[in-house]
Each structure stands twice: as C-alpha cells, then as structure tokens.
Amino acid sequence: MRVSELRELVNVRRPQPPYGTRRLARAYSIEDLRRLARRRIPSGAFAYIEGGGEDEVTMRRNRAAFEDYELLPRVLRDVSEIDLRTSVLGTPLALPFALAPIGSPRLFHHDGELATARAAKRAGIAFSLSSSGTRSIERIADEVNGPRWYQLYVWNDRPLVKDLINRARDAGYRALLLTVDTAVGSKRERELRSGIMLPNPALRLSTLLEGALHPDWWWHFLTTDAVRFANLTPNGAPASVGFARMVKSFDGSLSWSDLEWMRDTWGGPLALKGIQTVDDAKRAADIGVEAVVVSNHGGRQLDHVPASIDSLGPIVDAVGDRVEVMMDGGLRRGTDIVTALALGAKACLIGRAHVYGLAAAGEAGVSHAIDLLTREVRMAMALLGVTRIDELTPSLVQHRPKSRPAGW
Question: I want to staple 218 with a disulfide (CB 3.0 to 4.6 A). Which of 211, 283, 302, 376 is the partner?
C-alpha cells in the first residue's frame, strides 16, 4: 500500500480550528471547554465560575437531575429541515436559548461582556448584562447593538436602582430580568478558600505565582484598563467605589409591592429571575409580569433546594398559559435544553456553559460554545422526530422510573 493511500485511509488531517482559534479545534463539548478554561485562567477566577453555596449540593443536583429524564423519540418523520427559532420577552431568538447574566466576566477574559455580546449578536440570540458587570450599560449598547436584556439586583440604595433601570431603558435594552433570590448574600466557601477578591484579585505572592502559570491572562490583566463594576462606579471614581456599592447588603425589604414602581419606571417586559415554587409563580402571574425564570441561581444561593429542571414542570403546569417560563441551571448539552423545552420552557438561559468558552478563548470561545449547543439541539430534535420548537411537548420526555424490570 502506498503512503498516500494509507494517509487517506487513516485521515491524518488536523481538525479545523473554530473561528481561527487553534486551541478550540479539539473542544467537542462544553466539558472540553471547561477543561480548557481551567488551564487558561488562574485558580481563583476558575473557583468563581465553579463555586456554589455552602456544600454545593444544589449546584450538583442541577446537573445530576438531567440524568433522571428520558427522551422518547418518534421515528420515520421528515426531519430534513429543523427550525430553531422562537421568541420570548418580545425578543425574536434564532435559537431557543439566550446568554445568562454573569458577574465580573473580565476576570475570565479581558474583553468580558463585549466578547459575550458580540458572540450573542452573531448567533441571533439575546445577551443579558449583569448589574455587577464590568462594562457599562451604554458601552454595550453603543458597540454591540444586538438583542440585549438587563439583569437587576436591588440594593439598599434605591436611587441607584432606579438610575440603573432608567439607563437600561434609555439605552434600548429590551427586557428587565429582576433577580429575586438574593434577599441576602450567600456563603460561597470555594470562593473564600480561593482568596478571590472582586473585582480585582489581591496582589499577593500566590497571585503572582498564578500569573506566572497563566502569562496570557496576567499580561492582559496588567495592560488593559482596570476591572471595575462599571455601572456602579461614577465616572472618574476609583474602582473601589463601585465595589463598595456592590457589596452593600442586598435590600432585604424588597417585596411584591415594589414591582409596581419598577414596572412603571421600566415600561417594558419584566421577568422575575429566581422563581422556585408554584406559589410564587402564581403570584407573579397574578401581578402580571411577562415571564418567570425558574432558577436557583446556579446553586450559588440557598443550598439544598430542588434542581431547576425538577421545579420547571410543576411551574409550567401552574402558570404556563399566563406567563412565559424560562429556566437555567445545569445546562451543558443540547439534550438538556431539549428536555427543558419539552417540559414547557419557552427558552433557556445559558450561564456557566458560555463562560467556559469565554475563559477558554474569548469571543471565539463563546461563539464555539453557542455552536456546540446549537448543533446538539438540532441533532436531538431530529432524532426525536420534531422539526419546530413548538413540537417539543411533555409526551417526548419521561422521568426515569426508580426501578427497572429484570433484564433491562
């Protein structure tokens, strides 16, 4: 056999690098991006991505719970054309998911939200800017004019909260995501053990050693503008001012009655992010919000609560005919997204999965994460025998029986 024939048989060609980024060439899954991210950034920054509340029981449940759901495919269907489009919160989406708000993303890559928003715009999906973000509301709107939502925390400084709402409205953000599961801050022990200091890592000996192990990250950290909570820091003020405002106690007096002035101030679609019970979902629907996000904050707030995917079905059954229902938590595969959609979610919010891409390779990494999930969703739908998002129904999913018959 000739060498040329042998080469053709064994196919020794290298994989094509996504978006021209060689390190992504062998990242075939979100888990591959996670491993790459772990190598690319300091351990403290990675601990901030990975950490959950206290013993991290809820965080693990979010992921493990998907293993208890089984998909029920229909065969001999024409699935030559798959339509992934949907619409939520008045925003048309090319895909049935959006990018969740993430705090301090410039800890993971120097471009931070700019990279994430650009990738979202390219994919035709919504980007969510966090109140604790590191790029300003206005800069994102000016530089990346794609579909965008604004996530709001409520602190004791109510004038600041109203100012943030007004700024997001004036800058053309299409929906407000009010996070309602942070009456108080949580205890995140993995972050505490890592010694992480937000928004800037403390310059200790261990930090310098980490920098030596991650020279690309360290170089950009030293040579780009200081990381700060951009929407909480007045122009000209030091970054410490924004940090001081961010760490003020969350407003524990926030209640259902506050939604009236928020709706009046905002004047657009409003979603409550952090709904975990049927009773709260019903109350949200009674008040007239446009959407709820079934979420336990990625397992980062109260520990020992149900996985988001387990809470989703009962909430959809209770209020799905009155409000749009989204969910986040534990989503790492296209089959996870399809399971949530089949259980009644209008769309999903993707958090850690896209941050792994950001940490691994900036904008290219986020785009690759979106592409991976998109291909997996399309494949899962085809193998289920459906071609449109509205064909994903509870008849296509079942909760795994607790016991199996003999010989299974």
Answer: 211
Q: Where are the alpha helices (DSSP H) in 127-204?
A: 137-143, 158-170, 189-194
Partner residues linked to 70 by β-bridges = 398
Backbone angles phi, psi at 35, to 5 degrees: -65, -40
CATH superfamily for 30-399 is Aldolase class I (3.20.20.70)
What is the mean pLDDT of the segment spanning 332-354? 98
What Rg value do the Cα atoms of the chain yield, rounded? Answer: 22
Mean pLDDT of 222-249: 70
Token pair, residue 377, equals 């969703």
**pTM for the structure as a whole:** 0.93
Which pLDDT band holds residue 242 (cuts at 50, 70, 90)?
A: low
Where do the domains of the chain lie? Answer: 30-399
Residues 6+ apart with CB under 8 A from 52: 58, 59, 60, 188, 190, 298, 299, 300, 303
Q: What is the share, in percent, of the chain residues with pLDDT greater than 90?
A: 75
Query: What's the distance, Cα to Cα, between the start and end of the chain in Å?
Result: 46
**Preceding amide of 234 cis, omega within 30:** no
Report how far residue 61's alpha carbon sits from residue 299's, in angstroms, rounded to the nearest whole number: 8
| Residues carrying an active site annotation | 297
Mean pLDDT of all residues in 167-187? 95
Q: Which helix (H) or strand (E) holds 8?
A: helix 3-10
